[in-house]
Amino acid sequence: MSDCDVLHHCPVWGNFQSHVRAVWINNYCKGPRRERCARLQLIRAGQPVAADLLPNGTRMPVRHTDGNSAAG
Ligand code: SF4
Question: Ligand 1 pocket: which residues have CB below 6 Å?
Fold first, then answer.
């Protein structure tokens, strides 16, 4: 199966810091669930797509990087 046409510029993966990124990509962007991707469906419908929208329709968890956390 070929890769999703927008994989190389899909903004959601640039900010995704988890090791499960590859699992998402293999299942959706390079795999059998692509047609179910919430992002792709919005793109095809000409609708705006939030940068943090994940393929299953949920939002990426927010990471707080305010620099005020106590370290160790
Ligand atoms: S997240 Fe969806 S739109 Fe983005 S590259 Fe993967 S399949 Fe394509």
Answer: 4, 6-7, 10, 12, 28-29, 34, 37, 39-40, 55
For the chain, what's the residue count? 72
Query: Are the CB atoms for 4 and 34 separated by under 8 Å?
Result: yes
The radius of gyration of the chain from alpha carbons, rounded to an integer in Å, stands at 14
Amino acid at 23: V
Nearest CA owner, ligand 1 atom 4: 10
What pTM value is reported for the model? Answer: 0.83
Ligand 1 pocket mutation pick from 3, 9, 34, 41 by most atoms within 8 angstroms of CB: 34
Query: Does 69 score more than 50 pLDDT?
Result: no
